Amino acid sequence: YTFDRPKKKEKLPEVLSKNEIKAIIENTINLKHRCMISLLYSGGLRIGELTNLKPTDINSERMVIRVENAKGGKDRYTLLSKSALEELRSYYKKYKPNKYLFEGLSGEQYGTTSIRNFLKKSCQKAKIKRKVTPHTLRHSFATHLLEQGTDLRSIQTLLGHNNISTTEIYTHVANIVMNTVKNPLD
Known about the structure:
By secondary structure, this protein is mostly helical. Helices cover 48% and strands 5% of the residues. Helix 1 (18-26) packs antiparallel against helix 2, helix 2 (31-42) packs antiparallel against helix 4 and helix 2 packs across helix 6 (134-147).
């Protein structure tokens, strides 16, 4: 027997502007929290990848972050921004993490629920009304790279996608086409 399956809805990812990202980071007072938000965005990290980071995963010589055992059990490298590195150096001196780069009070991995909570508070302070999750920062990272001319294959590698079609979703939300097509009313 063959049955027609209902069509799956294709939802486009929510993307923030660069100014909104900066506002969120600027409205995050706690140094540890600011570093986490910066790395989620500037490395295109998933929340679990962030909480699994170890201090040795930050390579300031090569300006990369090693992401071990990511989705699908794969390892990869992603970008480390200069501003995030400067914040991380201050953070490291203050908190002196042992096993994980970001540790909770007990010395174990920082909780994902806590990350979601302080991100929500930072968004409220930044007056961002839309729902923002840690994954929204990852979507924004990929879209901003595409908009500044980074090729899709490189973005696929940075995000750790197996299939290029997963990465292609960002072509639908990037402003590349929107900025080149003139509105007939204008």
